[in-house]
Each structure stands twice: as structure tokens, then as C-alpha cells.
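Run log, item B.
One chain of 479 residues. Sequence copied directly from the ordering sheet:
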Amino acid sequence: MAIHKLSAMELASQIRAGELSPTEVLDATLAHIETTNPALNAFITVSEARAREEVAAAEAALAKVKNGGEDLPPLLGVPYTVKDLVDTADVRTTYASAIFEHNIPAKDSVTVARMKAAGAILVGKVSTPEFGHKPMNESPLFGRTVNPWDTSRTSGGSSGGSAAALASGMAPLSMGTDAGGSIRIPAACCGVVGMKGTMGLVPHDSAPDGFGNFSNQGPMARTVADTALMLSVMAGPHPNDPHSHGLPLDDYQVAAKGQGDLTGVKIGWLPYMGNELIDPEILAACEARRDALGARGAEFIEFDEPFENTEPYWLVITQSLWVARFEDKLAEFGDRMTPTLLRGIEEGRSYSAVELQRAITFRTALYRRIQSWFERVDFLMMPTLSRTAINADHDFYQPITIGNQTAGGIRQTWYPYTHPFNMTGHPAITLPCGIMADGLPAGVQIVGPMMGDAGIIRLGAMVEQAHPWAHLWPDVTTP
């Protein structure tokens, strides 16, 4: 099998066994990026210089082991990418904004530092909309990232560069971020796995509001096992994240084996979460994945109670923060910023302090309500998106269609299943659920109670065993 089609687990194993060298893997990865990226525009920066340094360190570590040295780290020689919202030492980190066009961080984010310590090789920074503000990957600084399965469609966002790179084999692992679905949306659009852990499990050392934060850094990969391996490296407390302290760590790699049965496990099934429309084909595909867990002994309880769409409250908190972060940059950079971000900042100016506090108290009530669901069930399951990827050039402020029906605004109708769990902090994983009639992937989401990360990984592995997907590859033609 071609090197670019090997999983992170396979690469790590073959490097350890001496069947592949880190240099050989990097050379093949860079060659595949060179031929594939022009069709997708997933990379902002290919960090070959840093990758060569890290590969040299990996080769030295292998030589030490051959001479009776220490054990090898778990990701030695395995390539990965990082969304361009996460700092990387000596590698340009722009946040897809003219404000930081020439920014070269002096040090790595804690998660990047952990990946480096685990032996992983950073091959580049992948795209995001400006400051990750919307679910379509495009920015004035770097243009548009498209979907490997159909380049007329969006890769999703805001970790769309990560998802496009994974789906096309440009790296087996990628680090994304997720404040309203930004890992899970593009993962579902591109047919890969994406996970947002329990709030604080993966520390976020650069969130501007550490206490009120609901943005997460998290692993993205093509398989559940690779996702679990990456999470095991990224997770753990850090002094800069107040949510990270005291959270227990589990053996995520054992969970990813999907062992045992589900007798006595109750799963809440939520086909709708404040939305009225979902593509029937996606719903049927998600039900088939649900039934695979039923075949392992799980009991399903349908939740049909009314659920208020959370987007209006999410927007008050998020757009107020945009005003605080970016308002003083508008005079100098406003004419080079994304129009949708500028509009969001303007909308943020209209909120009062009272409205912000109401949104914050809504967030608390939402957490308590969803947490109470776990008194009835052990996990939740639902679609990730209500339809496949929208057109890459879709006007963000125009309604989308689902089937032949006009559904409404993008956030409220395309991904109502994702942002509630950012606001509550519960762990969530999205898994591919097949290729739909339009040739595009879709996703199914599993949500767990707080600190239930290993549990959702285990269920995800069981879905993968029943309905494997890693053998499916898009045909990416270089223009």
C-alpha cells in the first residue's frame, strides 16, 4: 500500500520495525502534498524545514534504540498537520488574517509541544476561515479550501484544511479546533473522524476567555484508533487552562479496540435538535450505524422532547467576544478582513451586557438539562449534519436547502447537532456514515457524559467495525 494511505498506527509500527524510515515517510508525504494540494488548497504553509529537523531527531532516536537506548515515543516519524489557529514555533501562524500575516510564534502551543515530544512530524499548517469564524474554509489571505470528494463543495469549517488533508491522504493526523462544531462539521463533510473532548481534557492554552471558553483543540484522523492515539498524546492538564485541572485520563487506545458487548447500555437517539429538516438518506445511514450498536446489545430510547435551537445564544457569546478581540484592529485591517467576520463584529456591537448575561445563564441551564439526560441514558447519538457539504461558493447569509426544501440559516439548520455540546462541554465524536447519492460523505455523532471520552471512542470503534470506511478514498485530480 502507498505510504500516504497508511494509518498513523501502521506508520508508527512499520517505523519501529525498521520497515520504513522516518525520512522515507516524510519524503513520500511531501511528494503527495505537492501533487494533491493544488486541487484542494488545504495547506497555508508546508513546514519542510521544521519537518526535516524533526525527522533527523527521529532517525537519531531509532539509532539509539538499536544501540540499547530508551523506548521510542508513540508517534515517532508519523506526519501530522495543525490548523492555522494553533501556534507552532518558527512556523508561520496567521489565523488566516492579515492582522497576523507575518506572525512567527516563538513557541509551540502545549498540544503541539506534546505531539513533538511524542515523535510526530509537523508537515504544515492547514487552512481555516479568518479566526475560525464560519463553517466554510475561505479567507482573503489564502482563498478557498474545497472538498476532496467534490471540489464544487465546501470542505466544511473551520477545520476544513485538516479534514481535506486527511481525506486525501496528505497526512494521517491533524490537530483541529472546535468552538461550535469546527472539528466535527468538516470531518462529516470530508468523511473522516473528528473528536471534541470533554471541556479541558485537551488543554487550550491560548483561549482569550479561559473561564468562559467553549473552544476545544482536538484530534482528527481517518480511523477511530488513530484518533484515540492522538488524543492520548494531547490530553492532560496544563497550568494555562482552568478547565483542565483534575480531569481523569483513560486508556483511549484500549477503548478504540471496541471490545465487549453493550448489554445494559442505554443510548438516547436524537434525530432532531431544534431543527425540522434532515436529509432522509443521511437519517437512514445514521440509523443503520445506530442499529449496529443495537446488534451489540445497546438499548435505544428516542428523545422527542422540544429542544430550543441554541444558535442565538451561542452567537451572543461568540460575537461579543469578537468585538472585544478585534474592534481595535478594524481601522488598520478592516479593508482586508472577511466580510462575514466584519458583519459578525457589527452584530456583536448590538448586544447589551444583559443579553450577554442571559446567554451565559442559558448556557448553564442547557448544561444542566443535557447532563440530566445522562440520568436516563449512558450516551447520546444523532446525525452530525442535516445534509452533505454545501456549495463552496454558497452565500453564508442565504438559506440552505435540504432535499428540495428551503431550510433556513446555515448554523440553525445545517449543524444544530454540534454547537449545543460546545456550550455544555460534553465530549462528542463524529464518524463517517457512508457515501450518499450525491457522492459526498455524511457523519453520525456520539456524545457522552462529562469525562465519558473513552466511552464514545469505544462506541465509535464498534460502529467502525460494523461499517468500515478507511478503505474509501476520493479521486483527487490535480488541476
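Observations after the first pass:
- The chain has a mean pLDDT of 97.
- The first helix runs from residue 8 to 16.
Flagged for discussion on Thursday.
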